[in-house]
Amino acid sequence: MRVQPLAFLQPGAAGEPAGTQPRSAAAAAPRAVDHRLRAIDILRGLVIVLMVLDHVRHYFHASGFVFDPLDPARSNALLYATRWVTHFCAPTFVFLTGVSAWLQGANGKTTPTLSGFLLKRGLWLVVLDVTAVSFGWSFSLPYFLFLQVIWAIGWAMVAMAALVWLPRPVVLAVGIAIVAGHNLLDPLTPQQFGSLGWLWMFLHEGGMWSAGGAPVAFVGYPVLAWIGVMAIGYGSGPAFLSAKRDRILLLIGAAMIAAFLMLRAFNFYGDPRPWVEEASWTATIMRFLDVTKYPPSLLFVCATLGPMLLIMPLLERWSGTPGRVLQVFGAVPLFAYLLHIYLIHLLSIAAHALSGRSTNGLFDFLRKAILDPASLSALDLPISATFVAWGVTLVLLYPCCVWWRALKARRRDWWLSYL
After folding, report:
1. Rounded (to 5) percent helix, strand, coil in the chain
2. What pTM did the predictor assign?
């Protein structure tokens, strides 16, 4: 099996930029990448399945925007778990995109070529997020912009286009410094930057962008911390070709979980929202695990990326239908991402129309969800409907991904590399 795209990179595969490793190592890299690709595809596929669950919940359960499902005062264990488990998605996607960038160099791509590739693909993802992705969420013209994970991955790839010119250990150090240190910037606010407040929202704070006094976009994924996560993925690339890969990933994953537990237990550092003891042990655990995603705090990255690194060695041994299905999703991640938004939105319109409910909230959805979430209360269905819609969406998505993967395997049209 030849190397296929990793994360949102097209096409995928291989390690250090040319000239940074011995020729013998570079020659051996393609076989090593091929051997280890399956676990990465399965992990990405698992993340896509979880991501679909999160997005289905937005359209089928009012808690998606009306209240925080991680708030123990209003949530319950099932709803909380349904939301929290999807936290694994973004860090894994971004980390694996960085790994893929390193792997491409190990497969022979020169630094100038790799840098240009990351720049073009990153800008393309930004364009997709403000066009096809935002329209798919909204189903309206004009539509409100919700700048989220594709946006963040795109700009992080643009940053990586510059970082790949540095030695890999330096890139790793930059990534660790950003992820570990960006919470020191939390006291800064956009207002302190005056007319450049929008730039601070873009980099770290997130928030509403307005034009002419009217809100036009919400920056849900400020990019600085995600650049750090991608740089760590790039810097960790050699581990994925190492004969000791499993041991390395287990040690890193365990260390991240240990760091999370220690720092969180003492409210020492790493998250702007300290936890407090609640009336019940269940609510206390909910509060303890509720770490900040926007932007991803140090503790959020440790609590999510750590477990995913722990399970990766197990995924390579996962055979049978579940593994093959996840591998299909993981082989075409960008296609799966774009298509699932439209499938979920259309399925929600159909479900609410057939049940006699108003579908008004499902058009111009993002603007209403962010600016007037109470207007979406009519969309509220039992949480069981979310799980049914999740299964239906995956059943519809799977054959489309099978077809797209087969199409890309037999054709080499230039435009196919953009999806």
Report:
1. 70, 5, 25
2. 0.91
